[in-house]
Amino acid sequence: MAAHNEIPDFDVIIVGAGISGINFAYRMQESNPELSYCILEARHEIGGTWSLFQYPGIRSDSDLYTFGFAWRPWTGKNTIVHGAIIRQYLEDSAAQEGIDRRIRFCHKVNKLNWSSSSNMWTFDITTQDTEMMSLRSGFVFLGTGYYDYQEPLQADIPGIHNFKGKVVHPQFWPGDLDYTDKSVVIIGSGATAITLLPSLTRAAHVTMLQRSPTYIASLPSQGAFETILSKILPCFAANRVIRFKWMLFSFFMVSICRLFPRAAKFFLLRETAKLLPPDFDLEPDFVPSYSPWEQRLCFCPDGDFYACIRSGKGSINTGTIETITASSIKLTSGKELYPDIIVTATGLKLCTAGGITITIDGEPYEIPKHFAWRAAMVEGLPNLVLSWGYVDASWTLGADSTAQLACRLLTQMRKESVSVIVPRMMAEERQTLEERPFLALKATYVKKGGNAFPKAASAGPWQPRSYFWRDLAIARWGDIKGGLEWLK
Fold first, then answer.
1. Residue 198 maps to a domain
2. Does residue 231 sit in the same domain as residue 338?
3. Is the pLDDT of residue 122 over 90?
4. Are residue 300 and residue 372 in the same domain, yes or no?
5. Domain span at residue 221?
6. For 445, which of 152, 214, 336, 487 is 20 to 30 Å away at the CA?
7. 43 with 168, same domain?
8. 202 and 332 belong to one structural domain
9. Which of 57, 74, 84, 68 is nearest to 23 (CA)?
């Protein structure tokens, strides 16, 4: 893909050895085996999120049947599993396909520069021993996730600096933190807080302090349908049917919530009431102010979150923090909590491209100022694909549709002897299209960090991601010429 007889180190370089990077490596080996590639991973092991996060109870918030790879189906009995099991699954998947041999660990990419004269990307890399090195490739796939690995979201919590006890953020959970017989307050109401509450069983008491409630649905850790099907069908057939069932479940659940929000809210709150102690009032702790799936629906396996509340080991307080003193949390309602440990489970700091500095011919390039093409490439950015998953389904499904689209682009580039592909939005399009949010969620951390993502528009290849089957159909058979400039 390079011009002027300059030879790249690799045809393709993948950044990130998490779900997105490993899946893309497999798809490329499947569709484009003639291309050379390597994976650059900043951490010491495979896993991405599942290597970084070590807080108690860390687990998937999607079913493993769709969160796992299509090419290596999840065969475990549990629908939702611990993070260490997910990381091992990723490691085993990479080893099975020989992908692990292509990974260069402790290689942190600091900067990417595109050269129009050579039609190549140059990577400025820091290795484990802090030495600098560079690599070159004709094509880049960024499987870097959507949040900042180095810095958590700094929530505005008044007086938090006054607290004399321990303050912990789940993203950097201390391995030696002793919470035995301590009073713990978790600030937040998202998936992390809902996971932590039932997991800190050695604490004297755990309180989840939230500004507003979240929808929390119980999901069986082992489904009867999956158990029966695994016994009566051959393994490969059972795996396919089970995966398809969970894809349908996710699609219909989200669709029903958005089409019939009142009915969905009634159903979810009715199921919540069944899991709480008798005569427990749902107000104010369990009735969200928003409709289902305006924010991500949280799951708890076998209702463990509600079981913790029934046991008396955990509780919820809904209110606004007035200030935090040296030993307490004062709420505007007048109530006061006295924790030994505060956990700030207030969300993630959103980040695109893993915080890598990107330049084109030495000139700075800012992704948030440009529109995304097929939710995979960004206008004006040559030969580079970013992987994003779904916010209303498993991440892996979105990453896979992106990977298959990228492989199709690579195949077509070689077929047409094209060196460069770059998205371009026509001037008339820019004047007529309406801007849309890239992520359709109203969560606080998305509102705060949504400007880290590229822009989306109301029509054409600039629309935000929709749902898996449509995106997969576009990836395999849709138009890949509209909005994309092909240069020989």
1. yes
2. yes
3. yes
4. no
5. 160-344
6. 336
7. no
8. yes
9. 68
Residue 29 lies in a domain: yes
Over range 17-37, report the average pLDDT: 98
DSSP labels, 120-175: EEEEEEE-TTS-EEEEEEEEEEE---SB-SS-------TTGGG--SEEE-GGG--T
Percentage helix, strand, coil for the chain under 3-state DSSP, each rounded to 5? 35, 25, 45
- Whether residue 123 is found in the same domain as residue 177: no
Cβ-contact 140, 112 below 8 angstroms: yes
% of the chain residues with pLDDT over 70 = 97
Residue 454 pLDDT greater than 50, yes or no:
yes
Say whether both 87 and 228 belong to one domain: no
pLDDT in tens, 349-365: 899 999 999 999 999 99
Domains of the chain: total: 2
Full-model pTM: 0.94
CB atoms within 10 A of CB 251: 16
Residue 294 has pLDDT above 90, yes or no: no
What is the CB-side half-sphere exposure of residue 45 using CA atoms within 13 A?
13
Specify whether 312 is located in the same domain as 169: yes
Q: What is the pLDDT of residue 390?
A: 87
Give the pairing type, strands 166-168 and 341-344: parallel
CATH code of residue 365: 3.50.50.60
Q: Is the peptide bond before 284 cis (omega within 30 degrees of 0)?
A: yes
- Residue 416 covered by a domain: yes
Dist. CA 113–CA 121, nearest whole Å: 6
**Residue 2 above 60 pLDDT?**
no
Q: Looking at 329, 344, 359, which one is the last position of a domain?
A: 344
- Determine the residue type at 371: F
Question: How far, in Å, CA of 252 to CA of 46, rounded?
Answer: 33
The verdict on 225 and 247 lying in the same domain is yes
Residues 327, 337 contacting (CB under 8 angstroms): no
Query: Do 324 and 132 contact (CB within 8 A), yes or no?
Result: no
Is 155 within a domain? no
pLDDT for residue 467:
86
Lookup: tokens for 349:
């700091």
Q: What is the pLDDT of residue 198?
A: 96
pLDDT in tens, 375-418: 999 999 999 999 988 888 899 999 999 999 999 999 999 999 99
Residue bearing tokens 């138009």: 479
Over its C-alpha atoms, the chain yields an Rg (Å, rounded) of 23
Q: Which two tokens stand for residue 442?
A: 């109203």
Residue 312: phi and psi, rounded to 5, are 90, -5
- pLDDT computed for residue 450 by the predictor: 60
Q: Pick from 292, 326, 344: which residue ends a domain?
A: 344
CB atoms within 10 A of CB 163: 18
pLDDT higher than 90, residue 296 = no
Report the distance separating Cα 13 and Cα 9, nearest Å: 9
